[in-house]
Amino acid sequence: MSKIQSNRGGCKDVFNAFLVENAEYAGDYEIPVISSYEGELPISMVPFSKRRQCSSNNWICFYEDDVNFEGIWKSPKKHLETLKSYDGIILPDFSIYRDMPLAMQIWNIYRSRAIGTWLQENEISVIPNIRWGDERTYDIVCDGLSKHSVIAVGSHGLMKDTAERQSFIKGLDYIINRLEPHTILVYGAIPNEVFQYPRFLGIEIVPYPSYTSLIFQGGIA
């Protein structure tokens, strides 16, 4: 793929082409590549919208309603210095639903990775969040990610409904077979039924309670 031009004769960069000016791409849909993270694991995760209520000794995550962090896509430069003040960033969790048109599912995968490659270019530690939709997205969400590394997933809100839970298991198992991660960070519940396969493989599963749970337990710092 040729280099994307962020300046086209004075036209406003409404597609945020500057995010991927120096990116490499992978897969049929040219998903921006994210370098693997090899540093210390996050002590805790804080949703983007709650960042002002917590110390900077946290990683920012985006496991919340999209409306709470859409600004990170609309005005990424505005938030850069704030994001730099935290230990690291779990990449944005733009919603991907199985009943979305495939084009929309791919677009939200792309947006997360475009932000990720730009943050890495600005020397911010990032860990890729993997959110899949229907089966057509399983390979796409793995494109541009390294094997044998650390990944993050969000289970919050998906474990009570049987259909959602089974869909989560199916997608997670596929991704594990494709990427063979050594560590999976999980924001939300970690039922044994859901994470039995990765545990069997010896993958480290690291739980991070949801922000709501931490508030209830008095564990926010």
Put the structure in a nutshell:
With 221 residues, the chain is an alpha/beta fold. The protein has helices at residues 71-74, 76-84, 102-121, 138-142, 162-179, 192-200, 211-217, and strands at residues 25-26, 31-32, 45-47, 59-61, 88-90, 126-127, 150-154, 183-187, 204-208.
Overall description:
- The protein has 221 residues and is an alpha/beta fold.
- It has one domain.
- 33% of the residues lie in helices and 14% in strands.
- It contains seven helices and nine strands; from the N terminus they run ββββααβαβαβαβαβα.
- The longest helix is centred in the middle third of the chain and has 20 residues.
- The mean pLDDT is 92.
Name a few traits of the molecule.
221 residues; 7 helices
Q: Given the C-alpha coordinates, what overall shape results?
A: globular
Please give the oligomerization state of what you see. Answer: single chain
Number of beta-strand segments: 9
Q: Let me know the average pLDDT.
A: 92
Q: Rg from C-alpha positions?
A: 17 Å
